[in-house]
Write a structure and sequence with these properties.
heterotrimer; C: alpha/beta; Rossmann fold
């Protein structure tokens, strides 16, 4: 087993990128995730793996650099935080529309506007419902530990290429800034030109050779009938993702009367809440969605009938709670508890909220 | 075993790096660890604090509402964190600059004249290691040799020549810590 | 000698380059785009780099450039082509990467991207079509629209008070350390066409020499947008556009 090191979540994103054979990182500094690019620049991967690292002039430019790199079948990524992600939404829509695989990391901070640099989960809607224009989805992974910051980089690329769709790691200021023990992935080489041909050779812009037709990467479909067919194809893809890629973790759900649903750092805090509740004789469990798109709706539907209530605990004014309500379709009461603007509830506050909202 | 520690003071006092060394020492002792800093403008001279959790089991929350130990290095932090120490817990503080000392009677309160000791050994940079020594004396959650191994991991190789000086400072802190109540 | 004897491959003195597709261009009769497309195709053909060239098309009339050149294409969001080109070139240093952009795309919404790509000295080719109007959306004011010029959003003529000055972006870019070759061409006469082709060829050759960014502006006509016949448009361009945007090399390093 590899040695375990103590690293910040943001640093680990950078190290995992190098180690999984990422071809290029393009980004723009913003708190609380600047350590990602800082770590990459310090590591100088262009001297070892050949990975390109470039500080772009804006997030708008970063995301469009991803469009260029991804068009060539390369593993490319960027990272940013909430205001930067808003700028990237145009590009994300184009990437989804052109069916390009890439990785975008959002280390979420409080909004709206310039907001605060403190942790938040208020970009859930933006991440899971689109953000940019058009009927599209990103594949969204929500790490709740530094180890998952490492593991999800490779997983995100894997899913992105499997479905030819942008993937997002939706982290938050806590997971990005905290240090934990982490086992870094082993170093893998970047894909060779031959491997790129094998994986993406049917569509990537690798140069038109005499033996094949030209490749065009575009999201433009002026003819309404063509555009509708393309949208239907996208929906089919999203449905396949919904069917095959749902990931979640359950803690003490089997005999639970009440269920907490929380993701990312908030799920860590709620684990403690579950322990506190159990110690006080309350049968409380936790469901932690690991993928936010696709959302673990079926599992919630399965659990709902035996529950007295579900509490969605989020660092937002209530965003994921809407997906929970859609999933359980009124089979059990669903309530929301959240802190806003960068404030983080401690495990006790979450327990108090549960008791109060369900009059326990 | 689980120890939740909050370290708080001014930016520049070595609060975050003390926490990091403590966390690394925990890893050397096969413990689970989390290190969660306050971040942002604090880095540049305001108040800074870090929560370190050391545990023999998987750690759930890196954010705590109560702590086993508070290590306090300025008045603002004392005002903020004194109430968070669990009954029976430890509050360790440097009295330098403290105008209103802690008042709780249900916790163990200790002080370490770390600023003064650092001046005495002529090395202001050893300040946080003196505080760490004082803490380890009261709460030997990690062994000294694991702390030295943790130090080696958390500071760059080019600074390894400073490790003996750091060890000396930790030992000095162990000797100089004073029980208040 | 019969006609059949004359029509033989060995007697060909001119032909369509195979890098151009057989697709009928959607450009209006008289538009400069088609000529510039042909020149790029010929340069790619003559340099033998068809399998190593990646084009980036813009948003605007030339969005469909990918229908006309037999190479791999990426179609960018409005103004972002230089960002795509940056990553494409850096990740594929052995490829020839060019953007093809109009005045709205390059000099208005994409100003940041072109400035920074040129300032970094990306080893790419930029072909910039300046016809002082938005063609595809139906003749609105462009950043390069002349003072007094009538467009659908300056129906009484562009005024400095309301719209500021025509943006001489090419002059700006020539100031940047990262550009190695900045030139302004046109394609309204056979002589101009030949000169423009030489400029495009030079730009592509530069990109292999890693000298920095090569930037070729082509002052063009939009007779539909200008509401003129092709001949009138050419004359209008010479009379009014050239004083504001004089043809010639601005920088050759």
């Amino acid at each position: 087993m590899a040695e375990k090191v103590l690293k910040k979540g943001n640093e680990v994103i950078a190290l995992a990128a190098i180690r999984c054979g990422c071809d290029g990182y393009f980004g723009y500094p913003i708190t609380p995730q600047s350590e990602v690019m800082e770590t990459l620049m310090e590591e100088k991967p262009w001297e070892t793996t050949g990975m390109v690292v470039l500080q772009a002039e804006s997030e708008t430019s970063s995301i469009n650099m991803l469009y260029g790199g991804a068009s060539c079948g390369k593993k490319v990524m960027t990272s940013s935080s909430s205001p930067g992600l808003s700028l990237m939404c145009e590009g994300l829509s184009y990437l989804a529309g052109a069916e390009l695989p890439c990785l975008v990391v959002n280390v979420v901070r409080g909004g709206p506007g310039l907001g605060t640099i403190q942790p938040a989960q208020s970009d859930y809607f933006q991440a899971t419902k689109g953000g940019g224009h058009g009927d599209y989805h990103l594949i969204v992974l929500a790490p709740s530990s530094v180890q998952e910051m490492n593991d999800f980089v490779e997983l995100a690329f894997e899913l992105a290429f499997k479905y030819r769709n942008p993937a997002m790691i939706l982290a938050d200021g806590i997971v990005g800034q905290m240090m934990e023990k982490v086992e870094l992935s082993p170093q893998k080489p970047r894909w060779t030109d031959a491997e790129i041909q094998q994986i993406s050779g049917s569509w990537a812009t690798t140069g038109k050779t005499a033996d094949r037709a030209m490749h065009v990467i575009t999201s433009l479909a002026l003819d309404a009938a063509v555009a509708e067919r393309f949208n239907e194809k996208l929906i089919q893809k999203y449905n396949e993702i919904r069917e095959k890629e749902v990931r979640f973790e359950t803690i003490k759900c089997d005999d639970a009367d009440y269920l907490l649903v929380a993701y990312g750092a908030m799920a860590r805090i709620c684990q403690e809440t579950v322990e506190m509740a159990r110690a006080a004789g309350l049968k409380v469990g936790l469901l932690r969605p690991v993928t936010l798109f696709p959302f673990p709706s079926a599992e919630l539907q399965r659990l709902a009938p035996s529950l007295k209530g579900i509490l969605s605990v989020e660092l937002s004014a209530g965003q994921m709670v809407e997906d929970i309500r859609l999933a359980v379709e009124g089979r059990t009461p669903v309530k929301h508890y959240g802190r806003l603007g960068g404030m983080v509830p401690d495990p006790g506050q979450a327990l108090e909220a549960l008791k109060q909202l369900f009059s326990i | 075993m689980k120890e939740e520690i909050i370290i708080a003071g001014f930016g520049g006092q070595g609060v975050l790096s003390m926490g990091k060394i403590l966390a690394y020492s925990g890893i050397m002792q096969d413990m689970e660890v989390t290190w969660m800093p306050s971040y942002g403008p604090e880095m540049r001279g305001g108040t800074a604090n870090v929560t370190v959790v050391l545990s023999s089991d998987r750690i759930s929350s890196p954010i705590v509402n109560r702590c086993d130990t508070a290590i306090i290095l300025n008045q603002q932090s004392l005002d903020k964190f004194e109430a968070m120490v669990k009954p029976g817990g430890l509050l360790l503080y440097d009295p330098n600059g403290i105008t209103q000392p802690p008042t709780r009677s249900d916790i163990c309160i200790c002080k370490i004249e770390a600023a003064e000791e650092a001046a005495r050994i002529g090395n202001a940079k050893a300040y946080n290691m003196i505080v760490l020594g004082a803490y380890l004396k009261k709460r030997p959650v990690v062994q000294l040799d694991n702390v030295i191994r943790g130090l080696k991991k958390s500071i760059p190789e080019r600074h390894h020549k400073l490790i003996p000086m750091n060890e000396q400072a930790i030992r000095r802190g162990m000797e100089a810590v004073i029980d208040v109540c | 000698m019969t006609i059949q004897e004359i029509i033989q491959p060995k007697n060909n003195v001119y032909g369509k380059t195979p890098v151009l597709t057989d697709t009928v261009m959607h450009y209006c009769p008289g538009c400069s785009h088609g000529t510039v497309h042909k020149l790029i195709a010929e340069v790619i053909d003559e340099m033998g780099i068809q399998d190593r060239t990646i084009g980036i098309s813009p948003v605007g009339c030339a969005v469909f450039a990918y229908n006309y050149l037999h190479i791999d294409w990426q179609q960018a969001a409005h103004g972002r082509a230089p960002a795509l080109a940056t990553a494409t070139k850096r990740l594929n240093p052995d490829k020839y990467v060019f953007t093809y952009q109009g005045d709205g795309d390059l000099a208005s919404i994409g100003t940041a991207e072109i400035m920074h790509a040129c300032n970094r000295g990306e080893n790419i080719v930029v072909v910039f079509i300046n016809n002082a109007i938005y063609g595809m959306t139906g003749g609105q004011m462009a950043p390069t629209t002349l003072i007094g010029q009538v467009t659908s959003t300056t129906p009484y003529g562009r005024t400095v008070e309301l719209n500021g000055y025509p943006l001489r972006i090419t002059e700006l870019l020539a100031q940047l350390e990262g550009t190695c070759y900045v030139t302004r061409q046109s394609v309204h006469t056979p002589v101009a066409v030949r000169k423009a082709k030489r400029a495009i060829r030079k730009a592509f050759e530069n990109s292999a020499l890693k000298k920095g960014t090569s930037f070729v502006e082509v002052v063009g006509t939009c007779n539909s947008g200008w509401k003129q016949t092709p001949v009138e448009a050419n004359n209008w361009m010479v009379e009014y556009m050239f004083p504001a945007y004089p043809p010639g090399d601005l920088k050759d390093r």
